[in-house]
Specification:
The complex is a heterodimer of chains A (84) and B (378). Chain A is of the alpha+beta class and 84 residues long. The radius of gyration of chain A is 13 Å and the shape is globular. Chain A starts with a strand and ends with a strand. The mean pLDDT of chain A is 94. Chain B is of the alpha/beta class. Chain B is 34% helix and 12% strand. In chain B, helix 1 runs parallel beside helix 2 and helix 2 packs parallel to helix 3. The longest helix of chain B has 18 residues. The radius of gyration of chain B is 20 Å and the shape is globular. In chain B, 49% of the residues are buried. Classes of the chains: A alpha+beta (84), B alpha/beta (378).
Chain lengths: 84, 378
Amino acid sequence: MPHLARGVRLHYDEVRSAWVLLAPERLFQPDDVALEVLRLVDGERSVRAIIDSLASRYQAPRALIAADVVTMLQDLNGRGAISL
Amino acid sequence: MNGPVLPPPLALLAELTHRCPLKCFYCSNPLALERRHSELDTNEWRRVLTEAAALGILQVHFSGGEPMARDDLAELVRHAADLKLYTNVITAGVLLSDTAMAALSAARVDHIQLSFQDSRAASADYIGGYAGGHDRKLAAAQRITAAGLPLTLNFVVHRLNAERVAEMIDMGESLGAARVEIAHAQYHGWALRNRRGLLPSRAQLDAVTQVVEKARERLKGKLVIDYVMPDYYASRPKACMGGWGRRFINISPSGKALPCHAAETLPGLDFPSVREHSLAEIWRQSPAFQKFRGTQWMPEPCRSCERRELDWGGCRCQAMALLGDSSATDPVCTKSSDHYVVEEALAELSADGELSARVMAPAGKSSRQRADTRAPGR
């Protein structure tokens, strides 16, 4: 199950009125789409469940959403922010 | 000059002290190390942290010197955590006892970066100038992971240890680190003084780069390897600190606010003290933070370069150290008409360069003069 790596947390930044992903010696400023995905990364949902949840809420084809989610999770995994 | 809205800084580098049990040749602290009596006290640091959070700073890096040489480190981490700041402790680890680890855990530290000087004890202890240091660091690494904290190992790489980068990465794996930093020394402070003996050869550098690239492939998704190239071998400069006055505020042990930790080598700048000014005032209004912010200050070839908002003209301290002109294009850039000074420095590197251990000047004497008058590149 994908989950935030140790030492990584999603934080609401009051000064910028925006969510940020805080990680060891780096931070990520997710766009709206990335934020939707990150909110579903809770260690309980599988990648499939994350995609299902997004597909039920957005008009885009499931395959397109799936590709975006997988790309994003792999990218953040490569940068140490998400464990898969 | 700064655009319509100045974004707030992202991170605070809190150099709590210049005191350190180690004497690394490559230390990037200034040659004139600040002494204990001039350090900000606990309440001053607490106020700085409170102002930092209000200003929009998200991460605090507690550094030094050795931040654990201060007995209020855990209290300051706790205060930062209460402010919802992300806390990172950058330590040599030799003071990280069980008690100290428990105090940091209880203070809710988010992450610890632990430095090693080499993969082998004898060489590591020589480079750090601290007998038994390597073994203490290994014990510290175990304490950190046993506490359930994410661990980054930091290795500063140079001529004396470049052959063992593969072993360093193995250490990261075996100690359960989530990240390993393989960072070539940056030639400021003590590292600049010791440059002749520290700068790796081109062949060493290429070998290190190859080791890092192979390991990254093998460890993808398991261990992040951050790799910092030595500027001298680059063709384009780094965006030092992400650009002057754009992301970071560095506070020296005595409370001077600096756009980068080496900025005091730049003449003619009056760095404001947090004892006299708020962080917000410093960030928005101080002439020192505005001096090289943005692109207006830039000379050619930076001013018309398509990379001007990528590298922000490179490193001001390097321009000063190598050219004696803090407003010049970073000579690391091959577009700089002064790039030859970097090539000269590479030509003079030497296997038997003498190395000076990092030490505080004896009380009453200052190494400042010696530091500032030393002709760079000679």
